[in-house]
Amino acid sequence: AGAGAPAAFMPCPDRAEEAVVPTLPGLSAVFGDPCRKDVDFSFSIHSALQDGSTVLLHAVLKFYYHEDLIEDVFGSEKPSKPIEKRYAEAYRIFPYCIFNSLEESPISWTYTNTSGKVYERVELYTRVTMVRYRRFHPFELYLLPLKVGTDGTFK
Fold first, then answer.
1. What's this model's pTM, rounded to 2 decimal places?
2. Separation of alpha carbons 91 and 70, rounded Å
3. Of residues 97, 102, 105, 106, the one with CA closest to residue 147
4. Which residues, including other chains, have CB under 8 Å from residue 31's CB and lie 6 or more apart?
5. From residue 82, how far is each of 36, 94, 111, 114, 116 by CA, in Å?
């Protein structure tokens, strides 16, 4: 690993000898890496229905990235048209995972490519786990963590 980088972090091979000056432990090594590929993400929840220790969500996941990432990084095939839509079919280009999801039912998938800037929208129903804290009885704290991410390998 480069100087100043955490032991588990391996910087870009062609810059392995450069020193990294962290502002917070390890963060500048990760966010300042020239091999890093950015994907912007946002989501919206349209409805939620609690059922015991799970919640059924109607959610929309939105990913924004450059078209070069589709084949080079994600290993997916780039759509031939600038706009594509699919309904009731589980499909995605960006390899995301909802870590606390027990099941997912697709509603729609939309791909829009405007001058190399991709907007990928996934609408779905998902059943996710919920956390309850009873530490301060008789009060309970209900939390709904929505943990969306990727394993970083893009495979």
1. 0.75
2. 14
3. 97
4. none
5. 25, 16, 7, 7, 9
Sign of the dihedral defined by the CA atoms of residues 16, 18, 22, 28, in that order: negative
Q: What is the band of 147 on the pLDDT scale with cuts at 50, 70, 90?
A: confident
Least confident window among 12-26, 42-56, 68-82, 121-135: 12-26
CA 62 from chain center: how many Å?
9
Non-local CB neighbours of 76 within 8 Å, separated by 6+ positions: 70, 93, 95
Ordered DSSP codes for 128-148: EE-EEE-TTTT--EEE----E
What average pLDDT does this structure show over 90-97?
Answer: 92
Kindly state the helix (H) or strand (E) to which residue 98 belongs, with its residue range. Answer: strand 97-98
Percent of the chain with pLDDT over 90: 52
